[in-house]
């Protein structure tokens, strides 16, 4: 059929040939796509190319004179030569476009894996979303997760700043790896919490289900955690303090709007409140930074927390929009 397409390109089809070409185009939707691909640079989709490019090439080649019919010998005139050259060009263009579309589809798949997405839970917010592999992520206030739009076939890697809870979809062929500050966390399928704020001196990893491997960026040695275990890493020390989780609410409670302070200093508490309520503090008086504070709240208002803190640390406060003045 390539000789008819060649004649179509040079506008030299007879009425009979036009009917024959039209019949071939209407015979199969794939025929029309091949035709359009050649004459109008129309590209097949990736799936169609992968499943039918062999059939396309066979149809183009086999549409020539059948092998058992010997062509009549005749001299090759200038017009016939032009048609044959055009046919070769058409076949070459068709093969190139099929190759180009296939190559473009493969490039597109790789490019999709390289696209990085950043999800951020601003101060005062919490986010829950799903990754391409089915992993569920819950971001705490003031946190950000960077991850590829589509994970590769060999690995799943994300980068965390702040705090997040992961419920990882199990895939033994592709471990799930989290890079967070000076700590790397690797799992196959489990649920756990990572707390790693840039302004904090410690990074915490706590396991709810399954098992987790935690290692420092400065060492190849790792710590393996099982359910109800956690590890506290002091930045810059390359030291892991592994311990049992005595109070799961203290670690995982933030997902249920539980605000818990256990022997915390006012400096850390102010940082936590700044993220939780998206406010900034202006301190106009001296505070006892060595004094520890313990309290539990369930979905509290900022005013309720400040009331109890004001009694404990003996200060007055004023809430002015997104600013808290301690005086």
Low-pLDDT residue intervals, each spanning 5 or more residues: 40-53, 63-83, 95-99, 104-109
Our measurement of the CA-to-CA distance between the termini, rounded to an integer number of angstroms, reads 89 Å
Average of pLDDT: 79
The run of helices and strands is HHHHHEEEEEEEEEEEEEHEHEEHEE
Query: Can you give the helix content as a percent range?
Result: 25-40%
Overall form: elongated
The CATH first-level class of the largest domain comes to Mainly Beta
Number of domains: 3
The major pleated sheet works out as:
13 strands, mixed
Count of individual helical segments: 8
Radius of gyration: 33 Å
Stated plainly, the CATH topology of the largest domain is called: Jelly Rolls
CATH architecture of the largest domain: Sandwich
Number of strands: 18
List keywords for this structure.
Phage tail protein beta-alpha-beta fold; 32% strand; FecR; Ferrdict_sens_TM; three-stranded mixed β-sheet; 327 residues; alpha+beta; Jelly Rolls; FecR family protein; single chain; 13-stranded mixed β-sheet; FecR_C
């Amino acid at each position: 059929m390539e000789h008819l397409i060649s004649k179509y390109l040079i506008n030299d089809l007879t009425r009979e040939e036009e009917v024959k070409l039209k019949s071939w185009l209407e015979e199969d939707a794939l025929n029309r796509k091949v035709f359009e691909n050649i004459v109008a640079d129309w590209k097949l989709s990736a799936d169609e190319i992968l499943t039918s490019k062999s059939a396309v090439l066979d149809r183009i080649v086999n549409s020539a004179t059948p092998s058992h019919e010997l062509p009549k010998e005749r001299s090759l005139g200038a017009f016939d030569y032009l048609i044959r050259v055009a046919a070769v060009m058409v076949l070459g263009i068709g093969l190139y476009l099929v190759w180009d579309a296939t190559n473009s589809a493969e490039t597109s798949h790789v490019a999709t894996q390289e696209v990085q997405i950043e999800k951020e839970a601003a101060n005062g917010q919490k986010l829950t979303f799903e990754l391409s592999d089915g992993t569920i992520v819950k971001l705490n206030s003031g946190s950000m997760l960077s991850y590829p739009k589509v994970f590769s076939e060999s690995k799943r890697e994300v980068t965390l700043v702040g705090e997040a809870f992961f419920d990882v979809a199990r895939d033994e062929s592709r471990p799930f790896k989290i890079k967070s500050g000076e700590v790397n966390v690797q799992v196959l399928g489990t649920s756990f919490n990572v707390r790693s704020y840039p302004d904090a001196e410690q990074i915490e990893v706590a396991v709810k289900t399954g098992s987790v491997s935690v290692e420092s960026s400065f060492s190849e040695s790792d710590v393996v955690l099982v359910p109800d275990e956690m590890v506290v890493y002091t930045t810059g020390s390359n030291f892991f303090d592994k311990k049992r989780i005595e109070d799961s609410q203290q670690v995982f409670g933030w997902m249920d709007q539980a605000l818990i302070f256990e022997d915390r200093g006012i400096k850390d508490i102010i940082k936590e409140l700044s993220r939780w309520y998206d406010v900034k503090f202006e301190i106009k008086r001296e505070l006892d930074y060595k004094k520890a504070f313990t309290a539990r709240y369930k979905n509290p208002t900022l005013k309720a927390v400040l009331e109890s803190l004001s009694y404990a640390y003996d200060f007055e406060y004023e809430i002015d929009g997104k600013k808290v003045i301690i005086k």
